[in-house]
Amino acid sequence: MPWPVQLVLAGMVAAAAVTDIATRRIPNWLTAPGAVLGLALQAYYQGWRGAALSLAGAALGFGIFAALYLAGGMGAGDVKLFAAVGAFVGPYRLALVFIFTGVLGGIVAVALALCRGRLRQVLAQTGHLLLSFGLLRWQEVRRASSLGSPGALRLPYGAVIAGGTLLFLALS
């Protein structure tokens, strides 16, 4: 990936992380132009093939996180941010970003639960969610999700997406 593309992507996810930590929101004015810029840069550097891969990456990023959003596990800004990241990296590289983001998210979630003295509760709830998800019990998944509950341990996942993306960029 050309360094200007990497630089713009790093700037976008860093800005998303800062706003998500500060306000618990990732604004559309960041994600929508980010996705368009990712598409434009990929088209500039790789032509029609780059544009097609950019669109496929955005669609994959949106699809993966939209399922988690519908299950009540994350906010819409996270979905749009991951779609924008997909527009920059394409579908194949997005798989690596997804893995890095997931591992980092797990580490941060365990650390947060430990710091708040709620690790046992979080692990039990996670087990229940995974079982319900595996059995395709969508209503139960939605009910068991604590994202909107008062006192829920909310993780600014935009910062985690930024961390996973920056880790990908550093290692690629």
In a nutshell, what does this entry contain?
By secondary structure, the chain is mainly alpha-helical. The chain has helices at 3-23, 28-70, 76-115, 119-134, 138-144, 157-171.
What does this structure look like?
The longest helix is centred in the N-terminal third of the chain and has 43 residues, at about 30-70. It is globular, with a radius of gyration of 16 Å. By secondary structure, the protein is mostly helical. The model has no long low-confidence stretch (mean pLDDT about 90). Helix 1 packs across helix 2 (about 30-70) and helix 4 (about 120-135) runs antiparallel to helix 5 (about 140-145). It has helices at about 5-25, 30-70, 75-115, 120-135, 140-145, 155-170.
The overall average pLDDT, rounded, is 88
SS-based structural class?
Answer: mainly alpha
Element-by-element helix/strand order:
HHHHHH
Shape: globular
Largest sheet: none
Beginning-to-end CA distance, first to last residue? 9 Å
Strand content: under 5%
Count of helical regions: 6
